[in-house]
Specification:
With 351 residues, the chain is of the alpha+beta class. It folds into two domains: 136 residues, no CATH class; 149 residues, no CATH class. It is 48% helix and 17% strand. It has ten helices and eight strands. The strands form two sheets. The chain has a four-stranded antiparallel beta sheet with strand order 1-2-3-4, covered by helices on one side. The radius of gyration is 22 Å and the shape is globular.
Length: 351
């Protein structure tokens, strides 16, 4: 079930990046090559996420592969390097043959790939997952936490505008207007989510104060597929406090917090692999041992769902020692109830 959930959201995230990349391609070269600009822009927008496949191919350890995603291929440095060499190569390839009616320049192609590649990690940085924009100089994971990894309200209007764009000839002025409309609409929505983030942070701070919760740090982020229902987690000295707040809630504070105790039941928590795993989850995690002493479940508390009777992490891993290394494999512990979507929608509508 966990794999099915994240496959769905990863697919929608990929569609979002394809749409954004295609729009960048249109801005850079649409007037010269028409719909081919959308295609090449979409390819550029997809390139950073190839690190998922590259990481799996080059790293036998699952933790290494996990850390590689949204790493160097999502950095500013990579955007400059990749766009330069891709621009040179495609320029040489494209401007050959009798099919060319309008010459493209090397600068055109470099700009197309830079815009489509760079905007990918830039958009990713607004999501809660975290993006290592500044590699190789810093492994800091930029995460503004204002928009979900997959949000239809951002993607669908943008996609519709680009589909309309495709039906106009490259010399038609309406073509660029529709492409820009998609960019303006999506950017306006992104600004709306930033405003929501500022408001929600204030709600959670007020709620912690009212509940007499003294916290060391906290983070709030939208739940998946929307920007109405938000999830907040605060770290105290002894536990984590988790709560939800919808913009449609009648109260101006979070009504209920669930506590998850802190624990470190893993031997040798200072092991580099385990440090990487906790770094990946921004040190919001809960570890539990099952009936089988050798089975240890790692719960990433940045992504959880409330199923009324319990809090369940959506990103759960079984971690185990293999020789001198620790590694992970997907866990079957995340099993949302059959009525989860109905409960989720009901909670979005507010208490």
């Amino acid at each position: 079930m966990q794999i099915k959930f994240f496959t769905t959201f990863a697919t929608m995230d990929s569609v979002t990046q394809i749409v954004l990349g295609a729009a960048c391609g249109e801005i850079a070269l649409g007037k010269k090559i028409g719909n081919k600009a959308l295609l090449f822009g979409a390819i550029g927008g997809t390139i950073p996420d190839l690190d998922v496949f590259i990481g799996t191919a080059f790293y036998s350890n699952a933790i290494d592969a996990m850390a590689f995603h949204r790493g160097f291929m999502h950095s500013i440095v990579f955007a400059f390097i990749a766009s330069y060499f891709l621009g040179l190569f495609i320029h040489k390839f494209y401007n050959t043959g009798k099919r060319i009616t309008t010459d493209t320049t090397r600068k055109d192609w470099i700009l197309l790939f830079f815009l489509s590649i760079f905007t990918h990690p830039l958009l990713d940085s607004f999501t809660p997952y975290g993006t290592q924009l500044f590699l190789p100089f810093s492994d800091y994971r930029v995460a503004f936490n204002n928009i979900s990894v997959a949000d239809p309200a951002y993607t669908i209007p943008f996609l519709i505008c680009l589909i309309v764009t495709m039906f106009f000839n490259r010399t038609n002025t309406k073509r660029m207007k529709w492409a820009k409309a998609g960019i303006y609409i999506s950017s306006t929505y992104l600004l709306f989510t930033l405003g929501n983030k500022i408001y929600i942070d204030s709600v959670f701070k007020k709620s912690f104060e009212k509940a007499n919760i003294s916290y060391l740090r906290f983070r709030a982020q939208p739940t998946l597929l929307n920007n109405m229902l938000w999830y907040g987690i605060a770290e105290t000295k002894t536990d984590y406090k988790i709560g939800y707040y919808s913009l449609f809630d009648k109260s101006n504070v979070v009504q209920t917090f669930v506590s998850i105790p802190k624990n470190d039941p893993i031997e040798n928590l200072n092991h580099p692999d385990l440090k990487t795993l906790t770094w990946f989850s921004d040190n919001y995690y809960f570890v539990e041992k099952k009936e089988n002493p050798s089975k240890i479940i790692y719960n990433d508390l940045r992504y959880v769902i409330n199923t009324h009777d319990s809090i369940k992490a959506m990103m759960t891993f079984e971690i185990k020692k293999e020789g001198l290394r620790w590694t992970t494999k997907p866990s079957n512990d995340f099993n949302p109830p059959d009525n989860f979507l109905r409960v989720f929608w009901t909670r979005i509508k507010g208490i």
